[in-house]
Design a protein that fits this description.
Number of helices: 5
Radius of gyration: 14 Å
CATH topology: D-Maltodextrin-Binding Protein, domain 2
Number of strands: 3
Order of helices and strands: HEHEHEHH
CATH superfamily: Periplasmic binding protein-like II
Largest sheet: 3 strands, parallel
Organism: marine metagenome
Protein name: Extracellular solute-binding protein
CATH architecture: 3-Layer(aba) Sandwich
Structural class: mainly alpha
CATH class: Alpha Beta
Shape: globular
Strand order of the largest sheet: 2-1-3
């Protein structure tokens, strides 16, 4: 259940990245383990997000096989300048993305969320 909330928070944070243009906006999302996350991401969160934000379309990339594949793909894409707007990565690989300047902080967006602490998120997450 908390994974669902984290994914929803990530998608909600994206709204703050996007300006309200007249034309539809598309964001690209990459995630691993389709067998585990398709029901949560593709079948639940994306439709909920698009309903709440009709001007934003979510384009899901082909899923990564696993977290190692996800990390290697993002490292290659960062060099080529072809990163998705959002990618789900294993927690044990976060420091690598921070050190390389790939990961971006959600702190400015979290600060604007009135109920963030009440939703049960751990500060370290």
């Amino acid at each position: 259940m908390q994974v669902k909330f984290v994914f929803t928070a990530v998608f909600a944070a994206l709204v703050l990245f996007v300006s309200s243009a007249a034309s539809a906006i598309t964001i690209e999302v990459g995630y691993p383990y389709s067998a585990l996350f398709d029901v949560t991401i593709k079948d639940t969160i994306v439709p909920m997000f698009e309903k709440a934000h009709p001007g934003i379309k979510v384009k899901l990339r082909a899923t990564y096989d696993n977290y190692e594949d996800a990390a290697n793909t993002i490292l290659r894409e960062s060099v080529a300048g072809k990163l998705p707007d959002v990618t789900f990565q294993g927690l044990n690989r976060q420091s690598m993305f921070v050190e390389k300047g790939i990961a971006k902080s959600f702190e400015p967006f979290i600060a604007k969320e009135a109920n963030f602490a009440k939703d049960g998120y751990h500060k370290a997450m």
